[in-house]
Amino acid sequence: MSTKSLRQSQLFTKTRREAPADEVAKNAQLLIRAGYIYKNMAGAYTFLPLGLRVIEKINTIIREEMDAIGGQEMVMPSLQDSALWEASDRWSDDNVDVWFKSELKAGGVVGFGWTHEEVITDLMRQYISSYKDLPKFPYQIQKKFRNEMRAKSGIMRTREFDMKDLYSFSATQEQHDAFYNACSDAYMKIFHRFGIGHMTYKTFASGGAFSKFSHEFQTLAEAGEDIVYVSEAKGVAVNEEVVKEADLSELGVTEGELEKRKSIEVGNIFSLGTKFSEALNLRFTDENGEEKPVIMGSYGIGPARSMGTIVDLLSDDKGIVWPESVAPFKVHLVGLNLDDASIRDWAEGIFDNLTDNGIEVLFDDRIEARAGEKFADSDLIGLPYRVVVSKKSKENGTFEVVTRATGEVRQLTETELYADFDNNPNT
Ligand code: ATP
Ligand code: MG
Predict the structure, then answer these.
(1) Domains of the chain, start order
(2) Which terminus, N or C, of the chain has the lesser number of Cβ atoms within 10 Å?
(3) Pocket around ligand 1: residues whose beta carbon is below 6 Å from it?
């Protein structure tokens, strides 16, 4: 993780008072105004320097938790061979409604990957032949393209987006189930580390042909496009399809206990059985010399959708409120009275000291901006701590420290400041 600090005067981006008129999603409105993202067109956004730092922190958390359960990262291409998809009967636009496709000048057609089951199953044929090669858990954080009909949820539903997609390859159902459960636990850890765990439910969803249920990770939020039925008391959530079709008593709840809520699907996990291994001929030899298709699962998380969810859930009327774990910087050092060279030199020293102490600092070193403007920007940008360096703090020998999430205001000496931030290291 980079501990690099940054001067606001060097940022090419700026905050803005109003979001574009065509931006209806709260997450994108706030992120655009605060200078994290830029809307290029419906369903396609730029992650600006501040936004990229958030995404990188999100991705780091995902990587740590995936690696901890045996995940191995790689990156597969977006351009995909139609033949693989014909093998699984998912090439036709009648079967899949989100394809982007393109013709090659050299002849033939390629698809822009909207998921990677076919590609990875084909690839793994090179590396799996025996039960000794199993289980394996490759994953990537990589671009997906989807021709989504509606893209009005800001960065939560775009036509081009990064997905963390992990695929499991197992020899036996027990092996598969063990990983499925480990991944489910890892997902909850991830969402807790994002600061949205308290609102996120592992939700029963329909399982397809190979298991009774799959699971979606649904975060309760008014901005959500999904509907879930939740018993907060029992910690059980069920999606719309399952409510209609399944016997709820099996899930330990009655219909009367479930409350209908809007939600955001931040991740999901799915048992694929042998659907793709049979279609694409991924087989292994078991202990008894018998040839069998590999048992697979797929496990997705949307980093940008997660970022949008965090913003949606944790912001207030002044702006974004980042949890420390994903904040682009820990401290917003706001310099006032910087037109006075002696204050400026002294403030620069504080900035250097904080940075040397390993603290990630965004230093509002802009000389012309007024105090009110700086504070409003600081609230909008939403870093966990704001520290004011001004003529007054130099004279008093203490700094005003405001905790963004609680509004708590403290006066700390320089030594207390370092001690305080040492006790709260980044992530
Ligand atoms: P949805 O039902 O919301 O369209 P999905 O079932 O198509 O989601 P998956 O194909 O399982 O989702 O993708 C895995 C994860 O990728 C999702 O849980 C979500 O976090 C993210 N994701 C899916 N579609 C998009 C999108 N269009 N933009 C951003 N993130 C997305
Ligand atoms: Mg979808």
Answers:
(1) 36-314 (3.30.930.10), 329-423 (3.40.50.800)
(2) N
(3) 115, 146, 148, 157-158, 161, 163, 265-268, 300-302, 304-305
